[in-house]
Amino acid sequence: MGHWNQDKVVGGIENPRFLIVGPELSPNISFEDGLSGVSSPTGAASQVFDSTTPFLDYVLRIEDDDPNAQEYAEITIDTGAPIAEKRFIVFAHARNDADVGDQACWCVFQGLSGTYEKEFMLNQEWRRVIVHEVVVPADATGNVLTYRIYPFGKSEGNAGTGAIRIDNFHVRQVLQEYEMPLPDRGKQIEIFRMIKQAEHELADGSIKTYKKGFRYYYEAGYDRLETLYESYRAQLAKTDNEILFFPHKDSSNCYLVKWDSDLERRWAFGTAALGHQAEVRLIGQEILHVIPADVVDSLTEYTYEGDVLYIEGGEAIL
Q1: Which CATH superfamily hosts domain 22-174?
Q2: Could you tell me the mean pLDDT of each successive run of 10 residues in the chain, 318 residues long?
């Protein structure tokens, strides 16, 4: 994987947070399938082509152009089971549709008793800025969550206007949560690595195609496994569910990850004895055709040479 500066971590250093999550519930993750799962009573939602998104080509555009009414889009999520007292998380990339300036985005878990809402500030760069968790009240009924997105701030009321774009919209049920504080700041590494994937030729003679993109990698070392981590690491290593990983618990950056290999899962972090050295090596499940701008911008020094990104004098992406 090359060499890199171990003190440089994307987004700063904080206690890693691991969420064990259930299967994907989003009706239309990357909006390549039109407006499936999306509705808007005033026609505020549309599917548009966007060459700047890191996730394929089409995105959801939401526009409120009426200063006398609130226009919004709703995404309907059928969870397949009663939602009462369960915990869910929405995480999505978004950006302001305008060429300059910031735009507020007001998001609500609609139809639940009480208020489950949050505001996010969007600029012109695609960022995983929408990260919204909810514990559903005990009096909620049915199997369906409705996520409503207003392209303006709540304080603007009916006068609010704006246009935003959404992509890579995920919804997962949160089953368990762990924090694994790092004992040594110099033992955490994050990189995005260039990879190439091939799609095999089909039996009907279709031409083989190749995809090139970037994949997230995370590595952390524990000089000595503490008692605090003993139960956590066993469950993380053995879970059959997916992991939603926050490298820094207070950041909106999160990645669906898996163990780098079965060997890593079973023999490195998974079965290291209490008091001994251990490592966590995780890889992102998503492949991006470009590195997200917020990741690149967080690097203080970088230069490109072909497919290689050099960070602070160290080779970071091969």
Answers
A1: Galactose-binding domain-like (2.60.120.260)
A2: 36 72 95 93 94 89 94 97 98 95 96 93 92 96 97 92 96 91 68 68 61 78 69 70 85 84 59 64 82 57 45 37
